[in-house]
Amino acid sequence: MKVDVSIPEADISKIKLGLPALIKVPALDDAMYTGKVSFKARAARPIRYWDPTSSRIVSCEILIEEYDERLTPGSTVQAEIMVEKFEDVLRIPVEDVF
Fold first, then answer.
1. b/e sequence 56-66, b meaning 16+ C-beta within 10 Å
2. Mapping DSSP to helix (H, G, I), strand (E, B) and coil, where does residue 53 land?
3. Predicted local distance difference test score (pLDDT) of residue 97
4. Is 40 within 8 Å of 15 (Cβ atoms)?
5. Distance between CA 56 and CA 35 in Å, rounded?
6. What is the pLDDT of residues 28-56, one digit of tens each?
7. Average pLDDT over residues 52-78
8. Cα(first)–Cα(last) distance of the chain, in Å?
């Protein structure tokens, strides 16, 4: 099973094949799965195909490592690609910084 994701064009330079990812499926009581980036498109495309001035995105695929029969094609998921990992840091939501 794979997940199709759209990455903003400004962030695509951070995405490399093989990066680990976490996939959360809200419809399955927030079940969590791991995966790896298996494909990154070579060209960006507009978010709204009829509007060439709209923001551009790049299509990527994440291959899910575990098999679960509850997963079905077309399900909505939340994917988080691990670009960098830091140890022993304080994490503050951006909404709390002013």
1. bbbebbbebee
2. coil
3. 85
4. yes
5. 25
6. 988 999 999 999 999 999 999 898 889 99
7. 91
8. 41
